[in-house]
Known about the structure:
Layout: E1 16-17, H1 23-42, H2 48-67, E2 72-79, E3 85-91, H3 107-114, H4 120-128, E4 130-136, E5 140-143, H5 158-168, E6 174-181, E7 201-205, E8 214-224, E9 232-241, E10 248-254, E11 259-265, E12 274-280, E13 286-296, E14 318-325, E15 330-336, H6 341-350, E16 356-365, E17 402-406, H7 422-425, E18 430-434, H8 443-454, E19 459-463, H9 478-482, E20 499-503, H10 505-508, H11 519-528, E21 546-553, E22 558-567, E23 570-575, H12 581-586, H13 594-607, E24 614-620, E25 629-635, E26 647-653, E27 659-663, E28 665-666, E29 673-678, E30 684-693, E31 699-709, H14 712-715, H15 723-733, E32 738-739, H16 743-749, E33 758-764, H17 769-789
Parallel strand pairs: 3-4, 3-6, 6-7, 7-32, 15-16, 15-18, 18-19, 19-23
Antiparallel strand pairs: 1-2, 2-33, 4-5, 8-9, 9-12, 10-11, 10-13, 13-14, 16-17, 20-21, 21-22, 22-23, 24-25, 25-29, 26-27, 26-30, 28-29, 30-31
Helix pairs in contact: 1-2, 2-17, 4-16, 6-13
Amino acid sequence: MSYWFHDQWIFQWPNVWAAQEWVIPATAIGAGLFVIILWAYRSIHAPLFVKLACATAKTLAVLLLASLLVEPMRSETKPVPGANLFVVLADCSQSLQVIDPDQSVTRAEQLKKRLDRSESWQVRLGQEFDVRRYEFDDQLSPVTDFQNFSADGRASALLSALESIADRFSNRPIAGVLLLTDGNATDTTEDTVDWSKYPPVFPVQIGSDEPAVDIQVHRVAASQTNFEASPVTVTADISVTGFPSEPIVVELLDEHGEILETQTVTKVREGQLFATRFQIKPGQRGVLFYQIRAYAESQQGVFEDASKSSEATLLNNSRTVMVNRGHGPYKVLYVSGRPNWEFKFLNRSLSEDDEVELHGLIRIAKKEPRFQFREKDSNANRIFTNTDDQAKEQVEQYDEPVLLRVGKLEQGELSGGFPKSADELFPYHAIILDDLEADFFSQQQKSLIQEFVSLRGGGLLMLGGGESFVEGDYLRSPIGDVLPIYLNSVSPRPGAGEFSLALTREGLLEPWIRVRTTQQQEQQRLDSMPQLRILNEVGALKPGASELLSIVSNRGESRPGLVTQRFGKGRTAAFLIGDLWRWKLHHSSRDNDDFERTWRQTIRWLIADVPQRVRVEAFSIKEAPNQPVKVAIQVSDESYQPLDNAEVNIEVTTPSEEHLSLKAEPKDAVSGQYSSNYVSRTVGPYRATVITNNPDGSEIERVETGWVADPAAEEFANLQPNVKLLQSIAQASGGELIPLDRLEAFVSTLSDREIPIAEPTVRSVWHTWGVFLLAISLLSIEWGLRRWKGLA
């Protein structure tokens, strides 16, 4: 089968000859006329090329007319009108709200015009097929017509829509699917799609392949560190097309729309990503949201007045990111062998951090031997001699140390001294041991501290002093096994005298160790510190340990000062200096808070990765229809083992302040894990409070989380049509890619394609207007040439 004159069917070769008895007469007549034509033009005086052209045109016309004597017919099949289905599937997602170069209207407006039911291609399609019309964004919707077409959908679930069509009409005669889209699907996966079950898909490309004028914020991320100068860092990747050599303004806004910081980026390369970074310190706890938006400097105020924009769209100029500052308060247990300056300054430093609670056990009197003489009427320690008799049963006895409890303690908390069970100790996130001998703890408590680090994932910091490390006899104890340094093979060294601190190469790479911005400023800080005098001698570093601070004596000897290491699920640190407080006494100015910042950053590092009893994570399920948000919860018991049979409820607050309640269900075959899915129907920030209860109904914890529903991020990730995807769909399903302006020509060819239900038809070639036009054209050419040359 062949066709001429663009894509219109003009002449089709015959495959049936109705009057075969006329073959010989028609051949004889044609041959005779051919001989007469040759004889006639041989006797004419004219240029050779003119005679050849005229003879050829007349001969072809005569042969064409002579062939009609045998009645050439065309036998073919045609679709039975109305017996076959044909689906018109239109993309109504917001990705069509793009203005292509050299266009004054959006892609959606162009498409809506072609979707008018009075369009010739729709009229002809309805004459031959049972047409079913659908729209799709994040889901498939049937429509009677496209009169109310509006491209405002949140997503482009292209593959899901095609799959639904294939399933819905799997047992019906369907001739094909006309898919009108830009091809920028948001539900594509890397899995290979089996197109064998799909009907032929004929994608119609919407949009131009030329790059659009656009500024796009691609990715926004927030990270929190223990470096107090920048606890939250918000970064964004931005690309610019069509603004050569123009500065780009990038703004950081809070969730109330207030601009927090503005940066102007110059020398932006066309079409290439550049990164911007904002460092902020949130003034409140909980789930917070920040927005990054970008625009050309010459178009200031474009978000308030869109008419100022020359971009293809403004819907991809901004992105929102969540920052979760609601993990605290963190509880730190400080245990000291005697009152000292270190605790005073540590407590003062942490009082400025509202996410850290410092609870202290400070020994003010050691326990006395049992054989010592006592008063006859009381076993209470003599430090409580003047205490009321009624309270003597509640005070420490002779053979118990006298402890001072400091901090915002609940009633009965730490009343029995250092915790003796996991239920008492595991609610804490970190332990600090200062100038305290190993015999202060029972063997059970020593093992409990080791489990606190290895199983619970807590942090342990031991400070230097007269009764720490080797001097505290921690060798061959469970606590000594946790420390990052060996306590044996300690060779006696002459007194270090006075010494100073120095950052190691690894220390320079840790932001929580540094206080100043540059390495030079950090060195100036260390040089201005006073000379220290108390240092604990230890053995070698354990494998995997990192030395972050070193001690440099006046004789130039270097020894470990601060050593850290991972241990099980937690982390440990050994700070071998016992008089860091001299630093604060030397720099007592209120303008210099380096000492306080150092303590806050150190404690932040110690508690940074300590797991909570309830851990919550919210993330989008990209491969699922409508891309719901999955809230995954992991619940542990008091010993931080997975807790089954917990009751987990989720209270969701939408961007419109609507409150919804969800119930998280246990995850199959995974102990202690629960989850719930939620489809975000409204664009904007979402907050969720996860409420967990024990099997007996008592509440465990309330944890806040959140997420951002930002479908425009994926919808406008690429403004150019995804021609590659459309071509692969067409090729694999047996269709072809159709330009938008060729819809009429395409529909006119459908009847000649393979159709499920068709009927045979026979047509006379002579009744084809193309044959008659060809014969007249040939005779007209011959006559025109003769008149031009004045031939008789």
